[in-house]
Design brief:
Chain lengths: ~120, ~110
Amino acid sequence: EVQLVQSGTEIKKPGESLKISCKGSGYTFHNHYITWVRQMPGKGLEWMGIIYPDDSEVTYSPSFRGQVTFSVDKSISTAYLQWTSLKASDTAIYYCARRHFMDVWGNGTSVTVSS
Amino acid sequence: QSVLTQPPSVSAAPGRKVTISCSGSSSNIGNNPVSWYQQLPGTAPKLLIYDSNKRPSGIPDRFSGSKSGTSATLDITGLQNGDEADYFCATWDNSLSPGGVFGGGTKLTVL
């Protein structure tokens, strides 16, 4: 079964750093793009960007460029989304999904940033 | 303000048909395939339609998609209570900063 399993809930303070993960299984991980999507509380879906695991080529949405970093570790079929200095406005659920057209979704990671 | 425009809400009675629209432009829907997602309350989105009109395995044929020009449509027939959810369209945008774009989402209420 093709799955993307994301890391658990995070509660952080403003200014802290964070790295969340998305582990793929049941398919050849490095051959398929991983898309990252944000969903702020009570709001719709926002496309953050995409990474190709085989060569780590990344495209960021202008809204997120410079605010987050995508990375992968092919050896463990895992993609990462990281922040160096969180803000309260980063509070959201973050999803990873496979491919440009997002055929398989992770379970989501809830991130709360509050002092 | 989303790049793709969807109605905020639609409603219909069980057994009826509902249509959800998604309007874009030549830089996105006009030149790229559209996907549709269903998000049940408290869950991750699920792919319903890709390549504008294809269903992944396991998606009932009550769900169908189409595209014409710079607009796309998701039709749901034989509405069931379990269809009550948020629905999102998405596609690629070939503008100055190419990337994916979503519609604002449509809340379907089954009356």
